[in-house]
Amino acid sequence: MSESPQLLQQRLFYQGRVFQFEVSKLRLPNGVEGEWECVRHPGGALAVPITKEGQLVLVRQYRFSLQARILEFPAGTIDEGEDPATTVKRELEEEAGYRAHNWQSLGKFALAPGYSDEYIYAFLAQDLEKLSLPPAQDADEDIEVVFMSFEEMESAIARGESIDAKTITSFYLARLALN
What we know:
By secondary structure, the chain is of the alpha+beta class. It folds into two domains: 35 residues, no CATH class; 121 residues, Nucleoside Triphosphate Pyrophosphohydrolase (Alpha-Beta Complex). It contains three helices and ten strands; from the N terminus they run βββββββαβββαα. A four-stranded mixed β-sheet has the order 7-4-9-8, sandwiched between helices. It has a three-stranded antiparallel β-sheet with strand order 1-2-3, with no helix packed on it. Strands 6-5-10 form a three-stranded antiparallel β-sheet. Its cofactor is Mg(2+). Keywords: Hydrolase. GO terms for molecular function: hydrolase activity. This is Nudix hydrolase domain-containing protein.
């Protein structure tokens, strides 16, 4: 196994409500020194909800950073000290208005390791119960619930619709788990 880089200096540039941005000066094992930026994030949890009719439950959500609405599975940031399974159950209820009675872990994956330490924990959510109250979205969310078949979702991905990477990855993890 190769040697790890040596941390020479670390500076916090920004502390936000969800993440922080830091710059680290490192000396690589080959002697080269440089600075690397990193977004430190607590991680997220995502549900791939499937109705008894085989429909995927997604949300179309406005994302300020892209200035567009994108198609996503219900997901959210893991609160401090919270288990990803607790996060995903809350987010499914809040964003889509469903409760799942059957959960299966699909694993975790790094979202953007080139600049962030965020991991997404993906779960398959089945045996869904529609809640009687409308979804309790956060004040800063603008969400529309969308239903798609697996074939419609695959076609949307192939057409290049605005779908985020965590949703595409989790869709294929769910397909593998179901086959």
